[in-house]
Amino acid sequence: MARGERIELIQAIQKHRGSRLICCLTSDRQGAPGIIAKDFIPKFFEHLSRFQQPKKIDVFLFTTGGDTLAAFGLMRLVREFTNSVATLVPEKCHSAGTLFVLGSNEVFMGRAATLTPIDPSVNTPLNPQVEVGPGMRQILPVSVESVAGYKALVKDDWGLNDDATGAAFRILADRINPPRFG
User: Fold this and answer.
1) What's this model's pTM, rounded to 2 decimal places?
2) In this structure, are 127 and 55 located in the same domain?
3) Which residue has the higher pLDDT, 124 or 103?
4) CA–CA distance, 63 with 24 (Å, rounded to integer)
5) Which residue would you say has higher pLDDT here, 80 or 138?
6) What is the domain extent for residue 92?
7) Final residue of a domain: which of 117, 135, 165?
8) Which DSSP string corresponds to 49-84?
9) What CATH number is given to the structural domain containing 45?
10) Packing angle between helix 68-79 and helix 40-50, nearest 10 degrees?
11) How many domains does the chain have?
12) How far apart are CA 73 and CA 57, in angstroms?
């Protein structure tokens, strides 16, 4: 969609809702993911500062997740500018996006929209990496739920004894830097 068409849609939403609208869309394309990150905060501040004492702010949000602390910080920032925040969810609003939504006064979701559990992930240079293309490496986030799920699998489903449980966690530690578990 061309920029002019997007601006017309934003203006129509603002007129209909009596609000100011910020659009926050991240990528869900394979090999080119985009996530909510701390560098969103100054961009949001830049946009919010242009609004002149808005009574209502709407955030159009499409995301597969990201940094939960960044999502929390974004909502706190938006709340510095107004007491009335609505989140408009056209489709995906996962993990950190769900945390953002929980800070809203109102949530409007499209028919195909989904919210997911908040699954904090650790994402640092020490995380495992995969090659997504020739010479292109991508850091994989380590999900709190994934580590807890592995522990439950080893203990409850497989019923491994202490020695075998230790071996299972050594295999995991060979693939994921142990400080990432904390």
Assistant:
1) 0.73
2) no
3) 103
4) 8
5) 80
6) 3-117
7) 117
8) HHS-S-SEEEEEEEBS-B-HHHHHHHHHHHHTT-SE
9) 3.90.226.10
10) 10
11) 2
12) 16
